[in-house]
Amino acid sequence: MIVSRSWNILAQIANKYRFMRRSKYGTLTAMVKQIAIDGPVASGKTTIGKQVSQLLNWRFLDTGLMYRAATWLVLRDSIPLDADEEIVTITSRSRMELKTRQGVETLIVNGEDITEKLRTYRIEKTVSQVSKVPGVREALVCHQRQIASEGPIVMVGRDIGTVVLINAPLKIYLDASIDVRACRRFYEMSGNRDNPTLDLVKADIIRRDQIDSDRTYSPLRPAKDAIVIDTTQSPIQDVVNKIVGMVNL
Question: 24, 46, 149, 212: least CB-packed within 10 angstroms?
């Protein structure tokens, strides 16, 4: 009875920061409250990850914003895309803060909110070239791990389960057909002044997939223990509910 009561007390304390699941031996194991969601461009990571975080009342981080911010800095200062040292320097020396304002994720870089500047077509077609630089990824991964250590979080990106949060108890890899992903991204960008054609968006996604998958440092791929979900024909809410259900098992 004393042992059981002690376990219950410990479980209550642990559950403040962790969720509990049964191991293969049937015993309860405390797991860090982290969900890693990876996948290629327009596979649904941000939309699904944000809704999962809202249902769980956890924080949400789209790491892609950080890489877009690094790209914005490079383009702003007209740094050549083959000048790796300069790119790493400007990224590592910049202060990036993630804040949530009225339920909306915003990125503050060196004291300036640049969130609305990060969804342009110019950044869209350049971000994979900047993010493939090892020094850029190393600098931003440190920031991402620090953010994750501060409490329950749903984190989305391209190397969350394989590099950033390798010990996350739940890893998801989202995917979808190239045509569906191209349509999603095309409609997302429809309000931009430099809006490209659907064919151009599709070509850029194919190119970005190639860059992301072939880079030497942290290539895009599912973690060995990730659950792969195809979102091509799956309603968003179904995928969200499925992921939340895994957490509550």
Answer: 24
- Residue 27: predicted pLDDT: 32
247 near 170, Cβ under 8 Å?
A: yes
Look at residue 105 in the predicted model and tell me its pLDDT.
Answer: 77
Number of compact structural domains in the chain = 1
The CATH number of whichever domain residue 47 belongs to comes to 3.40.50.300
- On whether residue 81 sits in a domain, the answer given is yes
- Of residues 116, 119, 113, 110, the one with CA closest to residue 99: 113
Q: Which residues of 216-226 are buried (b: 16+ CB within 10 A; e: fewer)?
A: eebebebbeeb
- The alpha carbons of the chain give a radius of gyration, in whole angstroms, of 19
What is the domain extent for residue 103? Answer: 34-247
